[in-house]
Amino acid sequence: MSSITAPITATHRAPVRTNARSHWPAALAALAQRRLSLSARTPREVIVPLLNPILFAIVIAPALAKLVGNRAGFDYMTFAAVGAVGLLVPINALFAGIGVIVDRDSGSQRDLLAAPVPRSFLVLSNLGVALLTTALQVSALIVAVSLRGASFQVSSGGILWFAGGVGLLAIGMYGVAETLASRMQKQEEYVGVLPAVAILPYFFAGSLFPISTLPTALAVFAKILPLTHAMALMRYALVDGRAGGLHDIWGAGDPTRLAAQSLAILAGFAVLMTVVSMRMFSRKAVQ
Question: Which of 242, 190, 202 is nearest to 226 (CA)?
């Protein structure tokens, strides 16, 4: 008697592989939401950077306007009001850097570093929140100075130039903030350099007066500052269609071309500082 034994074959189902990268947008959004919730719990980060520029724009700028009068056909108050944006954006970016230090020292940053997402996402999510708060603060400033009597030349093209200048300046300055936060151990040390980084360039960048009135050496230095290009671009967008600030930087030429050159300078600054900040953050994370 013979028996036939059928071979037993086992069927193995291939494991389903999930692409981790498909979850990265959701992870980035979650990190940004976390940072936003932390910022909302500390209104200081939203309100305090706005106080000095608004005080300057609605109190000091009108007083200066009475002394200076009109310059080159436009109101000095409006000229100085746009300059207040150049004070607000760096201050807001540097204040956001304080939150990074606090999160590193007493927050959940160490736990987040173990998450299966690129470390650069922590920088990018913080940057997104900083851009959001900057947009809200700049909008509030523009509304405040408009109610105070500033007169802007608004056009669709001008709004784009203005938004580009503000956005790229904010990105670059936040990269500076992240870089400083990564290099400095203590919050006190960071606060100590904040005025030099966020406020000092304001006085050389054509915020209160054209850079053409500066001594030659200081005028050359001013042309190197990204804030100078941002100031000239924002004034070309909303105040001075003849692009006096851009001509002070680049000389004679078509205003649109000069604006594009300054925008390119700001774009390079934003990209450079974002890359540097992500590398510094990653290097600090493994120490």
Answer: 202
Q: What is the mean pLDDT of residues 18-29?
A: 60
**pTM, entire model:** 0.80
Cβ-contact 245, 235 below 8 angstroms: yes
What band does 286 get if pLDDT is binned at 50, 70 and 90? Answer: low
Residue-wise pLDDT tens digits, 232-258: 999 888 887 787 888 888 888 888 899
Closest by Cα among 49, 266, 89 to 164: 266
Query: How many Å apart are CA 60 and CA 36, to the nearest integer?
Result: 32
Q: Rounded mean pLDDT of the chain?
A: 78
Closest C-alpha to 96, from 38, 17, 155, 22: 38
First to last CA, the chain: 75
Q: Is the dihedral of CA 84, 85, 87, 91 positive or negative?
A: positive
**Contact predicate 285/119, CB 8 Å:** yes
Band of the pLDDT at 17, cuts 50, 70, 90? very low
Q: Phi-psi region for residue 152, left (φ > 0), alpha (ψ -120 to 50) or beta?
A: beta
Contacting residues for 184 by C-beta, under 8 A, at least 6 apart: 101, 190, 193
Distances (CA, A) of 41 to 38, 44, 83, 99, 210: 5, 9, 30, 12, 40
